[in-house]
Amino acid sequence: MAAASAAGEFRLGQRGHAAGDPRRVGTVRYLGPVESHSGDWVGVDWDDGAGGRHDGSVAGRRYFVAAGERSASFARPTALSKGISLPDALRLRYRVEDFTKEEQDEMYVFSTSQKRVSVEFVGQNKVQEKLKNFNDLTSASVSYMGVSSTGPPDELENLSLLDLTGNLFSQWHDISALCQALESLEVLNLTNNTMENDIVESPMLENIRILVLNNCGVTWELVEKFKVSFTRLNELHLMSNKLKMIMIPDGKFVQGFNTLRLLNLEDNNIDSWDEIVKLSYLKSLEQLHLNKNRIKHVKYPFILPTHGPLDDASAVPFENLQVLLLGSNEIEDLSSVDSLNLFPSLRDVRLSDNPIADPAKGGAPRFVLIARLGKVKILNGSEVSPRERRESEIRYVRLVMGKTQSNDQEEIKRLHPRFAELKTFHGIEDEKPTSSISGPQKMSSGLINITLKCVGPSMGEKQPLTKKLPPTTTVGKLKSLCESFFKLKDIRVKLFVEEEGCPLPQLLEEDTASLMELGIGSGASIVVDEES
């Protein structure tokens, strides 16, 4: 009887929050009695632990299995809330005369670039005037307000953007009902709502253009199910869902999603590029966000689909992909960088926070990445100007010329695929001994102009100096020269080269490396600082 009473209030799998605290959210995992305790109890597995006390077992008896060792607890039904309706949440959020600072901070919409953008219609002076009825509302955020149902939708016919982050939705039939009620809805953010795998085909979902399902417990099996309903999706955000594998029921490639332009799979523990290759033939895909995964290698897929509706000999993998974000992965080989040149439309690449892009870990500096990526217009969020590209490519050619010991052209091409092309394009000739110039004239003709800037706090204010130096000058030798040029006594220096597009100068670590070997030519700026 006690279990039936509790079941009348809640159901297994239902989402709820602690009474009075809509940010403490959990999932109902047990309904019934607890040994040695009277009355009705609800076993809750709290999101992110959220102050749990055990793992679903008490006094040696297991009632349910929780996600963590201390993520669960038992509560009286009266200590939990089943949530409120969407209209009630909107009234609480927008129909008040005085907003607290915390409430003001939460008044934003979710833009396509995933930035918090202030909602103009909730200005403190005009909120009451503009919201005499909810028909005035076109965009709204009711994040972490315990919303669990659509409620009477009569006054919400113009709502086109809705942020439901951190609420209590879990069943797709509720989302379908929501979309049916909100006929103008095109942007739906369900971040931090734990969604069940119960979706069925519904025409009510076809108007959604941007769907955000970050940290919703989404599987690719569910994605395959809902693509037949979300037929007009332009953006799909699936961050933090532990989608390590893209499981496809038929064939080798994801099909459908004919209007999808942006797919966000950040922070999903994906460690194999083979999983990403399965997305090769999403024909409208322009942006692919893969930051914060565990990808170690990238390779352009030269394979073609050989069966099913994708049997098209003219199909080109990633044909329209323009933006590929690979930041914070584990890429450490230059062949992965070089393979990005094979993506036919790629113009914007992020490689930051990978070993290959970290010179301190043996990776390549920005100028090398720019030179090796011939078509990229934006690298790591920073535009590559024509000047920066030219200087980077020239410096890269000098770097290769200074370090290459072999005359084997095939070996050079394998290690530096763009070297010969860039050398020819910029008209850079091999250094040749000549007898027509001798003495001081010959020496001066091979010097490079370097600007030295002294910035150390103990060095005093010193004007920059421009010096002509042989390209064979090593970093160690240049340090000694700087100590002499700037009259630095008993101060050990370190050198950095400034590069356009880089927020911080790059440390020159190898004392035995020459300026030529580092690709440093005329016009370069060297920052002189003191060792800490």
UniProtKB/TrEMBL annotation:
This protein's major location comes to: cytoplasm
| Family matches, as SMART domains | CAP_GLY (SM01052)
Signal peptide as annotated in the record: none
Q: Which Pfam family, giving just one, matches this sequence? A: LRR_9
UniProt domain CAP-Gly: residue ranges: 32-76
Task: Give the CC-aspect GO terms.
Answer: cytoplasm
Q: Tell me where it resides.
A: Cytoplasm
Query: Which UniProt key words apply to this protein?
Result: Chaperone, Cytoplasm, Leucine-rich repeat, Repeat
* Family in the record: Belongs to the TBCE family.
Quote the subunit structure annotation: Supercomplex made of cofactors A to E. Cofactors A and D function by capturing and stabilizing tubulin in a quasi-native conformation. Cofactor E binds to the cofactor D-tubulin complex; interaction with cofactor C then causes the release of tubulin polypeptides that are committed to the native state.
The protein here is known as CAP-Gly domain-containing protein
Organism the protein comes from: Panicum virgatum (Blackwell switchgrass)
